[in-house]
Amino acid sequence: MLSRLLKEHQAKQNERKELQEKRRREAITAATCLTEALVDHLNVGVAQAYMNQRKLDHEVKTLQVQAAQFAKQTGQWIGMVENFNQALKEIGDVENWARSIELDMRTIATALEAEKRKE
């Protein structure tokens, strides 16, 4: 009888150990699945952030190129305006020179007419 009780006790203990081992394996499997799901979820967010960063970097480079082109074009426009202003000044100088010559010619003409009348 004692031997039978001992065997029953050992059998129940073995059943409990097997059940406990089975539950431990199930818990490990569930924890692994949960970990993988969390990592996958985080990876999606990280991948999206990485793609957004790449897009932003591309946009920054594009804007830098465009800003450089705009600065170059602005410099060219400024040069053209300065040249135009210089040409206007030169035209004004020629106009003043022509007025001066005209005034001198009138003075000479008046003097010649006065000389002619004296004679």
Automatic annotation (TrEMBL):
Catalysed reactions listed for this entry: L-lysyl-[protein] + acetyl-CoA = N(6)-acetyl-L-lysyl-[protein] + CoA + H(+)
Start and end residues of each stretch annotated as Disordered: 1-22
Any one Pfam family match given in the protein's UniProt record, by short name: GCN5L1
Signal peptide: none
Any GO BP: endosomal transport
CC annotations in GO: BLOC-1 complex
Family: Belongs to the BLOC1S1 family.
Function field: Acts as a protein acetyltransferase. Negatively regulates aerobic respiration through mitochondrial protein lysine-acetylation. May counteract the action of the deacetylase SIRT3 by acetylating and regulating proteins of the mitochondrial respiratory chain including ATP5F1A and NDUFA9. Acts as a regulator of mTORC2 signaling in response to hypotoxic stress by mediating acetylation of RICTOR, thereby protecting RICTOR against ubiquitination and subsequent degradation by the proteasome.
Protein's UniProt name: Biogenesis of lysosome-related organelles complex 1 subunit 1
